[in-house]
């Protein structure tokens, strides 16, 4: 099959918000492959907060040269297997890690993307490319947060703050798949969505400060794991957690997200989490950060759970390639329930 030299791709031309810095360019070179990489004809790409909140907004030009193609998650067809274990024509999904996106200026929001063969797996046939595109980064974050960081065991009790976030939605399904009891929060309008993912109990975080609600109604069996997937900078959920997190229990965060340059907030957080000794009133529970690691064996396990129907895709909305800026508007509302997906190949399911 002869491959084009030139493709259409979204590129960030400066540092800033997607609507100000992203351009759709129809004269972008198709990536050349290094050893161990394959070329994917992208069918669908999914958006992640890290792209618009961190990479586009904060990484200076001397670290990430412009223009570059944004985004990580993709589903597509291998069109140059480049002597890897894949064959041309394999239908795959996976994600370009943040490190490769920044160092090698690789991105998923393009007709063609190069990606390490170790960062993709064959797409299970029970999910379409549009559904599959949104699974890898968020599901692997949930998987690693629960198992690698929190060492979750079957039958344990888990609280998921942000049951309707993409990470939280995958976490509910993964925890339920090993028989855990799951309680999750979201705003009231998302109760049936969160319960449909398997949550046994629901807490509406809008009815009062969540740490106070939980402390006033502690569960008879305190949680073994508290997974914070919203990105709260405010520390009350952690500092009050002795009331609802069991001794030895672990508080895992996907990473507090300051709104702007909040030195005071970050300092408070550092004091509460890392510095304040327990004898000086520090919280007697362990706080840990999950940073997703693109480990092939975890992507394989996630794909197996998708194939088994244990992990169902979470698609909030789908936008055509030319409308990627509308997709960014949607994810930036912070109200999506599941993944915001961009259909790169309009013929794809
Ligand atoms: N560390 C890592 O490796 C890693 C990897 C992936 C993601 N992340 C981070 O994890 C966070 C979640 O990412 P995502 O893509 O899953 O998010 P997302 O899907 O964009 O989250 C949107 C959801 O957040 C919910 N939400 C907003 N405020 C809430 C609150 N105070 N309490 C409970 N739910 C709330 C909204 O529900 P309502 O409308 O009901 O409020 C909405 O459904 C982000 O901060 C992201 O940067 C980190």
TrEMBL record:
GO CC annotation: mitochondrion
Listed GO MF terms: oxidoreductase activity
CDD domains per the UniProt record, alphabetical: MDR1 (cd08267)
Domain Enoyl reductase (ER): residue ranges: 16-342
Protein name from the UniProt record: Enoyl reductase (ER) domain-containing protein
Protein source organism: Postia placenta MAD-698-R-SB12
């Amino acid at each position: 099959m002869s491959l084009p030299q030139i493709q259409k791709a979204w590129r960030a031309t400066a540092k800033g918000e997607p609507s100000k810095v992203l351009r759709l360019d129809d004269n972008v070179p198709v990536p050349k492959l290094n050893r161990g990489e394959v070329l994917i004809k992208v069918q669908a790409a999914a958006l992640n907060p890290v792209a618009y909140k961190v990479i586009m907004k904060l990484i200076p030009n001397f670290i990430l040269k412009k223009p570059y193609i944004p985004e990580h998650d993709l589903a597509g067809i291998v069109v140059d297997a480049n002597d890897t274990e894949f064959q041309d024509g394999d239908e795959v999904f996976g994600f370009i890690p943040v490190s490769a996106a920044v160092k090698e200026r690789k991105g998923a929001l393009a007709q063609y993307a190069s990606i390490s063969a170790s960062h993709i797996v064959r797409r299970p046939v029970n999910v379409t490319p549009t559904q599959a595109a949104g699974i890898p980064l968020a599901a692997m974050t949930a998987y690693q947060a629960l198992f690698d960081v929190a060492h979750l065991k079957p039958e344990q009790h888990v609280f998921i703050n942000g049951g309707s976030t993409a990470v939280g939605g995958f976490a509910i399904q993964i925890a339920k798949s090993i028989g855990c009891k799951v309680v999750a929060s979201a705003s009231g309008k998302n109760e049936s969505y969160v319960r449909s993912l398997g949550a046994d109990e629901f807490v509406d975080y809008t009815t009062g400060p969540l740490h106070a609600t939980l402390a006033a109604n502690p569960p008879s069996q305190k949680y073994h794991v508290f997974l914070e997937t919203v990105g709260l900078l405010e520390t009350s959920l952690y500092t009050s957690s002795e009331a609802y997190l069991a001794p030895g229990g672990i508080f895992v965060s996907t990473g507090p997200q300051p709104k702007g340059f909040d030195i005071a907030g970050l300092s408070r957080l550092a004091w509460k989490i890392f510095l304040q000794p327990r004898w000086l009133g520090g919280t007697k529970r362990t706080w840990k950060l999950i940073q997703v690691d693109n480990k092939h064996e975890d992507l394989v396990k996630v794909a197996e759970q998708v194939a088994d129907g244990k992990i169902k895709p979470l698609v909030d909305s789908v936008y055509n390639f030319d409308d990627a800026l509308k997709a960014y508007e949607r994810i930036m509302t912070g109200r999506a329930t599941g993944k915001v997906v961009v259909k790169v190949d309009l013929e794809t399911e």
